[in-house]
What does this fold into?
Amino acid sequence: MKKALLFILFALNINAQTKDEDIKIRIVKAKLVDNVSVFGMRDLKVKNDELKKVMVKAKILSTPDNRAKLSGFSLIDNVNKIRYRLADYKGYLGVIDVAEFIPYTKFELFNEKGKKMDWEGLPEYNPAVKDYFDQFDKEGYTNVEIPVNFGTKEKPNLSIIYFGETEHEDFTAELFFVVFEKYKDLDYELYYMDKKISDIKFNNQKEKSAKAKKQSDNSDYNDE
It folds into this structure.
């Protein structure tokens, strides 16, 4: 059994490494995360019970001439033919490194008086920064993009956000997606541009721990 398990882990490790020209991507882990957790986008707090925030952690190695374009990542649900846009991103070189923060708004934002919105923390609107998500549609698949509200609940001001080109060459990326809650246990695929990186299955460590504890509490074994 141990030999079989080791073989499976080894096979998964091989399948989870993909080279795109000069970019190498290796999947470290994938898991469900709290909807209210905040990493990059302070406004990205998923409050809809029908949605679930998930994270794929990857090691990325690139070159100065071909750094990773974060908007090129997408998550694919082949069962329901859904293609999810990257919703949030955290990139860092080491444990104590300051996280990279490079979001852009898809649309230029204006307040109710028609004045361009410009406040600290608001992602930049820059059409010169290419959004690669739109370049790699899959035929027969629906693109799902969750807009961020930069206004208020009473007066929403919505825009899709996307992420630009990283400044890092050898780094760790935490890629966050927002999927439908009812589909969170399905098998997914992570893509970079038009290339499949890896099969993805999200694990909930909290639920696993709670289940293990419950099984332990219900055990017939008693040492008293």
